[in-house]
Structure formats: C-alpha cells, structure tokens
Amino acid sequence: MKYDVIVVGGGPAGICAAVSAARQGVKTLLVEQNGFCGGMATAGLVGPFMTCYDSTGEEMIIRGLFEEIVDRLVEKGFAIHPKDVMGGTAFTSWIKIGHDHVTPFESEGLKLVLDEMLCEAGVEVLYHTAFLEPVLEENKIIGIKVASKSGIESIEGNVIIDCTGDGDVAYRSGVPFEMGNEELGLIQPATMFYHISNVDSDALEADIQANINNFYRKDGVNYRSLHWRVTEARENGDWSLDRVSIGIFRMPKKDEWCVNTSRIMNIDSTDNKSLTKAEIEGRRQVDEITKFFRKYVPGCQDARIKATASHIGIRESRHIKGEYRLTADDLLNAKVPEDSVFIAANSVDVHGRFGPKSNEYVPINGKYYGVPYRSLVPVKVDNLLIAGRCLSADSTAAGAVRVMPPCMAMGQAAGTAAALSIKNNCTVRNINIKELTYLLKENKVYFG
User: Fold this and answer.
1) 167 Ramachandran zone, left/alpha/beta (phi>0; psi -120 to 50)
2) Cβ(364)–Cβ(347) under 8 Å?
3) pLDDT of residue 356
4) For the residues of 385-438, what is the DSSP string, one character each?
5) How does pLDDT run across 45-69, given as a tens digit for each residue?
C-alpha cells in the first residue's frame, strides 16, 4: 500500500486533514483506531464545539471545513448553528465570557456526517487500525506500521500527518516534546464526559435562574451552576468530588444535557495503566454525579444516563517541538504571524493548575490571533506534519487552541499543505506559504 498522504488519527484535526488533502486530488489514507471518526467529539462525547467567533462575538472566524461540518449537522437536525447560541444560556452552562456562539451537536449524527464527507472526498479509510511505529529513512519518515485484525502491515506514504492528539507519530519518530506544563510539573486533568436524558429542563433552568446572581469566583475557583446544590450534597455526605459546581450544557434535544463535571488528576494519556485508572475512576464519578442529579437537582429526578464516553476526555499530554513554539503571550496579545494558517479567538482555558477545583479562563486582548504554519512542522524529521492539541505550543497557549474548532482548522491547514508539497515536489518544511494561504482562502478559510 502506498499513498501520497497518510493521516494518523481521525479526530477533529484528522478528519479535516484527510478531507482537505483528498479534495486537492492526492491519494489519501486515514488510519483510525476506533470504528468511527470524530475523536473527542464522538468517542469522548465532548460538547459543545467551543466558540468559532472573534472575541467580540460579532463575526464567525473559524470557517472552512469546520463551518461545512456544522452546516451539514444543522441541515440534518443534529446541531444548532452557533449564530443562534449566545453566552449566558443553558447551551453554554450559563457562562458568558468566551462562550458566545458555541455549537451544540449530536455525536451520533456527527459520525454519520464525517463518514459521508470522507467518502465524498475519496479518502481511503482504515477503521479498527492502530498506529504502531513510523518507518524512517535517516531523518525522513517514509511510512508507518499498523496493527489490526489483518495483522501487522507497513504502509508507504510521502507525507504523514500526526493527528493522534498525543503526538504518537512524532514522538516515536524521535521528535522532542514537552509533557504538559514541565515548569510546574502538571498536566491538565482528564474528564469522563457523559450525556443524560429525560430531564425536565424547564424545572432545571428555573432553579439556575433563581440563583444565577449568586455565581462568583473565589481563590481561583468558580462557583457557578448548581454550586448551592453541591454544597447541600456535600454537607449530607452525598458528594466526594473535588468540584464545587456542575458543568452542564443543554444539547439540541431539550431533555438532553452534556455533563462536563468529573475530574481525574495526574493522568498520563500516553500510559495505558494511567488511562485504565482514568476510565475506571471516571465511570465511578459519573455514577456519583448521576445520583446527585436525581436526588438534589430539580427536574432531574428521572434523569437517565444516555451514554458515557468510550474514551476518557484528555485535555493535555505531549506538546511536540516544532519550528515555532506558540506562546500564551502570542495569543493574549492577539499576534497574527505572517505564516498564520487560520485565526481564532478562543480564550486560554487551563484546568487544575491551582488544585483540582480550580479553573483559569483568560480572554485575549484583541479580536483574534493567528496560529503559524511553523507550529505544525516538527523539528528533526522531514515529511511529517502535526495537527491538533499536540501542536508546538507552550502549555498555556495549548489550553486555548486544544478545543475542537481550532483543531479542525489546524487539520485543514495540514492536509492542504501536505497536498501542496506533493504537487510541487517539495518538503512540507519548504512549501510556499503564500500559495498555501491562497488555497486555504479558496476553501473558505477566513483570515480577517
């Protein structure tokens, strides 16, 4: 088997990398360990898509393939368009800052839409196939080895795009990396997302509205939705979690909610023992949270677990070293480098830095920032690109662009760049940036 472009990992970044490369007319393979694409959006049940607008909430700036996916979901009744979702509502867990124009969506519908897009683009897909190791020729990656029910196979590729989330391809190719925040010795906590149904949402929202003026922040901890109920449960011995509020986001169907509350500290997603611990503890916490809903939260007495994630939600692991390391200063000061491949305005969102109850949420000082192509190009190894939360960035900057809309934009940029390098017979490290941005604009990527 030989391909122009091989994309490893079919999460938000990988799906867009594969589709964008194939649409440029190059032979493209997508390798995914699950039986479906979507990554954290499907296997992880993470939702909603965070904002795709500028910091003023006035203009949609993450567009391209992300917007096409959203439009297809909306057309099929699987999502609510971000233009119709405002901050401070049930769809944003009543959070205002940085949460204007999120996108509530159905994960099962997303699986269907992504399959359709892959087939339409002509991407060859291998589901139930795990990446094992790169095939290297000195400092150049020339293929990968995979494992599946068919056995162990070698696949040749001219360009490999690492969309594994953890940067597995880059790491196993010998590219240097940082693990979480090495300066502080911390990794953002993991979360077991899950969905509940059969909720009387009017009763739930009435309880929130009656207490919404009591939202506050103290000692780095946000006391937001249902913190009064959590306090009551803790006093009664029914709450053991190191959380003080409930992260709960209404989904397109009125009785269904996405729950982002469980918190598992010190999880290394590159270690199978640590992942196993996270999955078991995550489900234990889901059980406790659900019992809390049924006993203490109005409208949730008959709530049912619709689904728990089939993969623990991971916020952070390896930050692969690229030609440029995106920094928090770049984002917070709204810098737009000349080689930017998309713009975004997602706030810095760091969990657990000051203990398991803490959250930091820092908006940027401008309308948007740019993410440079150099942050998708790893050092040391040729023919390799990275996209998604493993991009070259410091821990704080990654806390902003790790969310799904920027990851999709990264994937589209990486896939387009890979195709461009094939067509022009050059390395991905040496492509013409002006030609890349021209192609991205042709495919509805917005640059302000």
Assistant:
1) left
2) yes
3) 87
4) EE-STTSSB-HHHHHHHTSHHHHHHHHHHHHHHHHHHHHHT--GGG--HHHHHH
5) 999 999 999 999 999 999 999 999 9
Tokens of 103: 């996108």
Q: How remote is the C-alpha of 357 from its chain's centroid?
A: 22
Please work out, in degrees rounded to the nearest 5, the angle formed at the alpha carbon of residue 246 by the alpha carbons of 44 and 241. 85
Structure tokens at 342: 């998309």
In single-letter form, the type of residue at position 38 comes to G
CATH architecture, range 2-184+316-442: 3-Layer(bba) Sandwich (3.50)
**Model confidence pLDDT, tens digit, residues 77-105:** 999 999 999 999 999 999 999 999 999 99
- Judge whether residue 443 has pLDDT over 90: yes
Contact (CB, 8 A) for 229 and 298: no
- Tens digit of pLDDT for each residue in 211-230? 999 999 998 899 999 999 99
Structure tokens at 258: 């996405």
Question: Dihedral of CA 335/341/347/353: which sign?
Answer: negative
Residue ranges covered by each domain of the chain:
2-184+316-442, 194-308
Contact 201, 255 (CB under 8 A): yes
Six-digit token pair at 282?
């995550």
Pairing of strands 257-259, 194-197: antiparallel
Inter-residue contact 393 to 329 (CB < 8 Å) = no
Per-residue pLDDT of 158-168, as tens digits, reads: 999 999 999 99
Q: Rounded to whole angstroms, how far apart are CA atoms 263 and 265?
A: 6
| 1 pLDDT above the threshold of 90 | no
Cβ-proximal residues to 411 (8 Å cutoff; 6+ apart), any chain: 12, 13, 14, 15, 16, 17, 18, 20, 65, 161, 163, 387, 388
Q: What's the gap between Cα 122 and its chain centre?
A: 24
Mean pLDDT (the chain, rounded): 97
Q: Please, are residues 155 and 146 in contact by the beta-carbon 8 Å criterion?
A: yes
Task: Return the closest-CA partner of residue 50 out of 16, 99, 90, 11.
Answer: 99
pLDDT tens, position by position, 381-431: 999 999 999 999 999 999 999 999 999 999 999 999 999 999 999 999 999
DSSP code of residue 254: T
Residue with tokens 């982002």: 260
pLDDT band per the 50, 70, 90 thresholds, residue 355:
confident
